[in-house]
Amino acid sequence: MTETIPLPAAAPNRPRTVAASPATLEAEAVSAWFGDHKVLDRVSLHMPALEVTALIGPSGCGKSTFLRILNRMHELIGSASLAGRVLLDGEDIYDRGRRITRARREIGMVFQKPNPFPAMSLYDNVLAGLKLNGIKAARDGRDDLVEECLTKAGLWREVKDRLRQPGGALSGGQQQRLCIARSLAVRPRVLLMDEPCSALDPTSTRRIEETIADLKEEVTIVIVTHNMQQAARVSDHCAFFLAEQGTPGVVVEHGPTDEMFNSPQDSRTADYVNGRF
Ligand code: ADP
Ligand code: MG
């Protein structure tokens, strides 16, 4: 369904997009089940506006599930049921009457495996970020939006002379930055990133980290990473998830990243951040 969103007054030539307005995200006692299998137990986490929160922890402890719950993406993959609340600047994104499409538009997602539309041009890939969210791009201002999003994703200079080439022609790292550009087209208030670098080489990883450092000037970021150096480099806050022997995932500890790495309160956090399991 196509929604009509008022044009920002200061930018008459822009396509119809939501004005950027970074928000705080708050999970309150979030529990999740796949059928009878409980995978998250009362996870509460404050993710401040314009900061980067890193979710760390071993595989299978519910980080991806938690991330998808933060923008109602899990409703697409079926069977997870949920208790608790997710507040975007104090408003529950699960409130009855609040549209699922609104949550996805305000809270964007970038996945582990870059997933641009491979046969679609770079230009159209960026604009697809609008279409995927049911927003019609006015013809005027499309070029500006594409340039703006590719610039923010750190890709503009590399691709500005070949915007008609297909997305699939880019390297893996460039494809991931294209996906970031696509997710920025609707000017999300929060950007969720699920291991965005784990399929990439070290140089591409560094470029994405630079992009994250720039983006946090205007969007709240939550990133899942298995790379402790990366968590230390890019994040302001860290949350350590753990699921011990058949129990559901919990947040063992969270706090400012330097405290989590230099003076963790829980011995399991210390072991994890020091690579001992
Ligand atoms: P992480 O991202 O930390 O590796 P996940 O959120 O992917 O963890 O998985 C947490 C738990 O939920 C695991 O036990 C996993 O097997 C289970 N799980 C994840 N997705 C599904 C699904 N679609 N259906 C059933 N179980 C799932
Ligand atoms: Mg995962």
TrEMBL record:
Domain ABC transporter: 25-273
Keywords: ATP-binding, Nucleotide-binding, Translocase, Transport
GO terms assigned for molecular function: ATP binding
UniProt-listed InterPro entries: AAA+_ATPase, ABC_transporter-like_ATP-bd, ABC_transporter-like_CS, P-loop_NTPase, PstB-like
Pfam families given in the database record: ABC_tran
UniProt xrefs under SUPFAM superfamilies: P-loop containing nucleoside triphosphate hydrolases (SSF52540)
Keyword Heme: no
Keyword Transport: yes
Disordered as annotated region, ranges: 258-277
Gene3D superfamilies: P-loop containing nucleotide triphosphate hydrolases (3.40.50.300)
UniProt xrefs under PANTHER family: ABC TRANSPORTER I FAMILY MEMBER 17 (PTHR43423:SF1)
Name recorded for this polypeptide: Phosphate ABC transporter ATP-binding protein
Species name: Streptomyces sanglieri
